[in-house]
Amino acid sequence: MDIWHIRGGRRLEGACFVQGSKNASLPIIAASVICPARTELMNVPQLKDVDAALRILRHLGCVAEQRKNDVYIDSTYFSCSAIPHSLMEEMRSSVIFMGALLARCGEARLSLPGGCQLGKRPIDLHLSALRQMGAEIEEDGQEIYCKARKLHGAEISLPFASVGATENIMLAACTAKGKTLIHGAAREPEIVALQDFLCSLGADVTGAGTDTVVIDGMRPQKHAVCRIIPDRIVASTIACAAAACGGKVELRGVIPEHFSTVLYFLNKSGCDIMSKNRTVSISSQGRLKAPGHISTQPYPGFPTDAQPVLMAALLKAEGCTRITENIFENRYRQASELRRLGADIVIEGREAEIWGVECLRGTSLNATDLRGGAAMLIAGLAADGETVVFDDGHIGRGYERFDVRLRAIGADIFLEY
Ligand code: UD1
């Protein structure tokens, strides 16, 4: 159990380097097995999910190791197309290995990713797309077995711009016969990052960042070197912490456009934001004001992953903030814990109302999930007195040395393992 001890009420001041993106790293690590190749990745965060992805690669027979923020993978040797449940359940996005294994050897056996805290997380779009490409798929509610003598290109229309489904199709299509078109594709920066990596392996992928991605199947086989993009959700989290606590924080090594919707709402709530090249500085003078209605949407809309941390930043904002959560059905689990600090949050289905309170009072909380846990840290930093967050490993799945980074900008926070 990780136990976070926070003494709230301090202003945050200083500069902070933002880690590489977890959600860009994981599909790129899976992509490294689509062909026999050597891969070097830089700026990979040291996280539990990354470690789980590398263990999956080693289980498949590849060489995979992380030294600080560099990852080395050699997928020349590859001995297995099945991933055991014990490894699958460690990382929810392990389903991305399905497309990668089909691309490499025409076969994948894996267990279904476990039930998620954010609500149902079906993979029907992934399976339907792979079937359209010629995969035969058997599922028994616990395990999936996919097989294809040779995948072929297909014209696929996604009814919802699913990030994971877009990534799985991209990977499977890289070695399929002919051209695959994904209409209604997700447009997240992580999709563009995956395309860049696949192209550096020698694959033919275009259109990422638009709603149509085109993959021309071939046999990619180059030595790929890639620098992982900065994590826009970690950047958003630190920006929200600065907004909630007051002070001035400079985020370094970021791509401001990637989290511009979050910065927009922080600016609307009274923070000054300055973006220059790869740096964003955010200053907050004291009590924020409610920024109006926030509605989560696929990129370039407001990210669902930043919803809990922005909610936490606005608990003391003057007025009422309304949030509509459109991506996940159960993404307000942090709310009941935040109420224990004195927050006034009303939830009805996908709608949340946050009525700003004068002050929050520290108490002990239980982290519910990755971003919900981060939201509790922010609320604790903005609360009077001491807050203790008991965390069963959620926050460490996405935030690298977060206690150290927050202390460096003046937070009084200590992580007990
Ligand atoms: C990815 C991110 C996650 C982020 C999410 C939305 C990674 C590792 N994770 O998750 O942090 O919150 O995008 O931006 O990159 N859906 C279906 N059927 C499917 C697939 C998805 O109904 O086959 C639904 C999901 O239940 C969910 C919504 O679509 O309600 C979004 O899911 P998706 O975009 O696929 O998210 P992930 O790729 O799982």
Brief sketch in words of this structure:
This protein is an alpha/beta fold. The chain contains 13 helices and 24 strands. It has helices at residues 22-31, 48-59, 85-88, 97-105, 124-132, 163-173, 189-200, 232-245, 260-268, 307-313, 334-339, 370-382, 402-408; strands at residues 2-7, 12-17, 38-42, 63-67, 70-74, 82-83, 107-111, 136-139, 143-147, 155-157, 179-183, 204-206, 212-216, 224-227, 247-252, 272-276, 279-284, 293-295, 320-324, 344-348, 351-355, 364-366, 386-391, 412-416.
Summarize the structure in words:
The chain is an alpha/beta fold and 417 residues long. It contains 13 helices and 24 strands. It has helices at 22-31, 48-59, 85-88, 97-105, 124-132, 163-173, 189-200, 232-245, 260-268, 307-313, 334-339, 370-382, 402-408; strands at 2-7, 12-17, 38-42, 63-67, 70-74, 82-83, 107-111, 136-139, 143-147, 155-157, 179-183, 204-206, 212-216, 224-227, 247-252, 272-276, 279-284, 293-295, 320-324, 344-348, 351-355, 364-366, 386-391, 412-416. The longest helix has 14 residues, at 232-245. The relative contact order is 0.16. The model has no long low-confidence stretch (mean pLDDT 95). The structure holds uridine-diphosphate-N-acetylglucosamine. Uridine-diphosphate-N-acetylglucosamine binds at residues 23, 26, 93, 120-126, 160, 162-165, 186, 190, 304-305, 327-328.
